[in-house]
Amino acid sequence: xxxxxxxxxxxxxxxxxxxxxxxxxxxxxxxxxxxxxxxxxxxxxxxxxxxxxxxxxxxxxxxxxxxxxxxxxxxxxxxxxxxxxxxxxxxxxxxxxxxxxxxxxxxxxxxxxxxxxxxxxxxxxxxxxxxxxxxxxxxxxxxxxxxxxxxxxxxxxxxxxxxxxxxxxxxxxxxxxxxxxxxxxxxxxxxxxxxxxxxxxxxxxxxxxxxxxxxxxxxxxxxxxxxxxxxxxxxxxxxxxxxxxxxxxxxxxxxxxxxxxxxxxxxxxxxxxxxxxxxxxxxxxxxxxxxxxxxxxxxxxxxxxxxxxxxxxxxxxxxxxxxxxxxxxxxxxxxxxxxxxxxxxxxxxxxxxxxxxxxxxxxxxxxxxxxxxxxxxxxxxxxxxxxxxxxxxxxxxxxxxxxxxxxxxxxxxxxxxxxxxxxxxxxxxxxxxxxxxxxxxxxxxxxxxxxxxxxxxxxxxxxxxxxxxxxxxxxxxxxxxxxxxxxxxxxxxxxxxxxxxxxxxxxxxxxxxxxxxxxxxxxxxxxxxxxxxxxxxxxxxxxxxxxxxxxxxxxxxxxxxxxxxxxxxxxxxxxxxxxxxxxxxxxxxxxxxxxxxxxxxxxxxxxxxxxxxxxxxxxxxxxxxxxxxxxxxxxxxxxxxxxxxxxxxxxxxxxxxxxxxxxxxxx
Length: 667
What we know:
With 667 residues, the chain is an alpha+beta fold. The protein is built from 15 helices and 25 strands. Strand 23 and strand 24 form a beta hairpin. The chain is extended and about 95 Å long.
């Protein structure tokens, strides 16, 4: 294994012409089929390159974040004019056979001729720019080695003239001294060894060189006189085995530390052969990083901002911290394993370093304070707050989705776009159909309507996260607290909806929800039994529309306080065979039971019958832009040397039509 420097590569790709949509100005491209091509040497000799289309081997983040669609890879150096469009976010994918993406063209006038040529099939080829991070030798084709890219990243797609590249026998990086160079890890093997086989063999060779123990032959050694020296031999064998295992573990840890610091394996080999302890080696790794930092061209003390952390760091750290919070809910994934034992302060330092910030000599408090300043503004430096925000949102969302609720069967969720008053119309029944007279005249009818008005309100809470939280490794601030916010958001919805029932809220006609004039109140009440339930059903069926027409609503469920839950289930859910006809219960198995503890706070005896929302609107729950649950926002706070996390939920609720509910005040 070795590392070589490479420039970006380019390959011809295909437009799928039948997918061109003139209205949306989009079309699909097959940006790769993984086919083998001959490459000019960027190490000793030409080679055959093959692109793996295993989804685990292709980094699609840059394409799916809206990568540019360029004119001839931007080689004309016209600046922004070279941008013809972009990859539609989230459309890039690989399926093991090919890579596909959707392109959207700009509406600029100068792009129109290109769009027309694509539509007419004149421009039928595009070119993909990509970078290879790992190549694995998989065999030979004649005298040439064949390498498969097992970690590569497409970063742009271009419209190109066919003659510029198509049919070329050797495809190489486009020569341009201004193009960036990248490290590519090269796994060379005899007999087409796989990557895992190479790494395993390298580790075994390192172990044997350090301990002097042949790991393949050790198990086959025999003591020449087992009967005389059996106990001593066993002890020596166990001691030697323990030594070999210990030395192997030491070497592996040294190798991991060196690679994590992105140092050469040469250092690992040198330190493995030495008598240094693991802690001493780690100290040398830190010293080596410090030396490299001092030798860097930039020697000023200012904070340097880079391009941000790789996606695998963000995803891996997020998975590891969520697993640490709740291992059953969030299983540890492969990309999270390198970070599973990292403290918040360790991760904060790593995010700063990959963003170009030198942390050598900083105290823990300084690292935490600097890491909590979000990247993007004039004085911001780190993407670490985004990691914390992602974790907080994830735990909040999961808690919100899982918190129990009992009202979903009789409400309708609606999105609203602002905080203005909402007017909901309750339509009367349609006018009667009338016989058409001999002249064919059809008379006009009209709809009656009544309006219920309400508006959404904002509910919010702020917590402050200081640098002490990071230094003390207090993960609860970003997991447990948002988790509780998620539950609180769910409870807030329940409070609003059930308060409409228990408070007997006013309707648009100025009368309470349950009122004798609404013909939906049984007072004084009676116990839940066949006759009383039949009376409530009758009130539902006799409800009339705004024009006096019978609605014939049918009961869907019985709502009870928890005090009556067991009685209601025995009465309505359990099916029994009566011995006498007068003992028969016509409601058994026909109605749902909704038990809600908030009803107990109002009355432990009152119960309700509710119609189906398929027949009539009952309760409406409105949220801003269809928001489901609270949303989190964070911002840097100079006064507390940290960040503030704000949970905000904009919502409101209203009973739209009283005719779908009947209340019995109970015995």
